[in-house]
Amino acid sequence: VRALYLNPKGQGGTSISGDQISTGRIQSNTWNSSSKGTYIDLNKGTIEMGGTGSSAAFNWNGDSLLISGSSTDILTPNFFFGSTDSYVSGSTDGVLISGSSIELETPNVFLGQNDTFISASNSEIEISASNFHLKNGNITASNANINGIISSSQGNLGGFVIGSSQINDNNSDLILKDTGEITGSKVFFDAGKIGGFTLDSET
């Protein structure tokens, strides 16, 4: 400051006039450190804080901004990061993520609220809604429309039990085996052919 007072023009065109300082750059004494100091180039419009170059905690090179730190808080009621087609934005209405391809990598995730949500952790996923629930590979639904092939080695369907080699009702009154055998304790035929015999409603 004393040097500028004695030489207002300073070095490299720096001048002090009233409440105004005109200069090309402002640099702290510790700026050469890799993690300290501040450098402001007023001519180029660049700023480096907390280090130099890409190692700076805050670096604006005129085209792009880099903010780095073990803990970084940006407090604002509204924000927008990205471009017209791919972005993350936030406001009082919530957070919106848009893009042609979105990847979220995290060991645990929870989207939704208490009764309606998608949750994943420990290589397992759970989906819950008013009429649908998926957990540990088990699906519970009040209504389901399924197109395509259903493959199962066991299960229950409409009062029938699906086993590994047969399908039967709960009381085993009707049994269909994978060998083609059909056993029924209560069978009624009103027509058809059995062993060369023809059946109709009367004979």
Task: Describe it.
This protein is mainly β. The protein is built from 1 helix and 22 strands. It has a 5-stranded antiparallel sheet with strand order 3-4-5-6-7, with no helix packed on it. A 5-stranded antiparallel sheet has the order 11-12-13-14-15, with no helix packed on it. It is rod-shaped and about 120 Å long. The N and C termini lie far apart (123 Å).
End-to-end span in angstroms? 123 Å
Class by alpha and beta content: mainly beta
Radius of gyration: 38 Å
The largest sheet has its strands arranged as 3-4-5-6-7
The largest sheet, given as strand count, sense and whether it forms a barrel, is:
5 strands, antiparallel
Question: Multimeric state of these chains?
Answer: single chain
Order of helices and strands: HEEEEEEEEEEEEEEEEEEEEEE
Could you give a short description of this structure?
By secondary structure, this protein is mainly beta.
List the helices and strands and how they pair.
Layout: H1 2-6, E1 15-17, E2 20-22, E3 25-27, E4 38-41, E5 46-49, E6 58-60, E7 65-67, E8 79-82, E9 87-91, E10 94-98, E11 109-112, E12 117-121, E13 124-129, E14 132-135, E15 138-141, E16 155-157, E17 160-162, E18 166-169, E19 174-177, E20 182-184, E21 192-194, E22 197-199
Antiparallel strand pairs: 1-2, 3-4, 4-5, 5-6, 6-7, 8-9, 9-10, 11-12, 12-13, 13-14, 14-15, 16-17, 17-18, 18-19, 19-20, 21-22
